[in-house]
UniProtKB/TrEMBL annotation:
Protein name, UniProt field: Menaquinol:cytochrome c reductase iron-sulfur subunit
UniProt keyword Electron transport, yes or no: yes
InterPro entries for this protein: Rieske_2Fe-2S, Rieske_2Fe-2S_sf, Rieske_Fe-S_prot, Rieske_Fe-S_prot_C, TAT_signal
Record-linked SUPFAM superfamilies: ISP domain
Organismal lineage: Bacteria, Bacillati, Bacillota, Bacilli, Bacillales
Described purpose of this protein according to its UniProt entry: Component of the menaquinol:cytochrome c reductase complex. The Rieske protein is a high potential 2Fe-2S protein.
GO cellular component: membrane
Cofactor(s) this protein requires: [2Fe-2S] cluster
This protein's UniProt keywords: 2Fe-2S, Disulfide bond, Electron transport, Iron, Iron-sulfur, Metal-binding, Oxidoreductase, Transport
PROSITE patterns named among the record's database cross-references: RIESKE, TAT
Entry similarity comment: Belongs to the Rieske iron-sulfur protein family.
Length: 181
């Protein structure tokens, strides 16, 4: 064995075979390097987790929001505003939203979102004299039935809020695809 290179040459048949041995210095540097990397990773993981976690969390389910007394809802849709508390990653906000709330022929109360499904303008009930008893969007003329069914321009019906009645009040919840049409 050659002390300087820590390499030993053996003959195996015709071919020389080199065997490397680890010096004390190499052993120490590998061991300390590995321990350092382990400790570094241990510090890094919580930092990365802190940075990324809120983004990976599923968005919190919408809570029920009390909007109006049940007695104020009629067969004619009316606009009601309400505030929701939203948490998106690190960002918290309380935007004001709007729902058009009406009572269906079955007596059940439903709530539609006024965001036009064409390009996102806001629709109004009876917003055009040309389209009586319909929702109308002033931007490009989309119009919808009382249940939110798209009659022109928009590709989809108006979205619908979940609704529950509790102690004489109408609450709206999660917004989702229209189930009435
Ligand atoms: S955004 Fe409503 S019709 Fe285009």
């Amino acid at each position: 064995m050659n002390d300087h290179t820590n390499q030993e040459t053996q003959h195996h048949g015709d071919k020389p075979v080199k065997r490397r041995e680890m010096s004390r210095r190499q052993f120490l540097s590998y061991t300390l390097g590995g321990a350092g990397a382990f400790m570094g990773a241990g510090m890094l993981v919580p930092m990365v987790r802190f940075a990324v976690d809120p983004v990976l969390q599923p968005k919190s389910q919408a809570e029920w929001v009390k909007v109006v007394e049940e007695s104020k809802v009629t067969n004619e849709p009316k606009s009601f505003k309400f505030q929701v508390h939203q948490v998106d990653g690190w960002y918290e906000s309380s935007p004001e939203l709007e729902a058009w709330i009406a009572k269906g022929p079955d007596g059940k109360i439903f709530a539609l979102n006024p965001t036009c499904k064409h390009l996102g303008c806001t629709v109004n009930w009876n917003g055009s004299p040309q389209f009586q008893n319909q929702y109308y969007c002033p931007c490009h003329g989309a119009h919808y039935t009382i249940d939110g069914k798209a009659l022109a321009v928009a590709p989809l019906p108006l979205d619908e809020y979940e609704v529950k009645i509790e102690n004489g009040f109408v609450y709206v919840g999660q917004l989702g695809p229209n189930k009435r049409v």
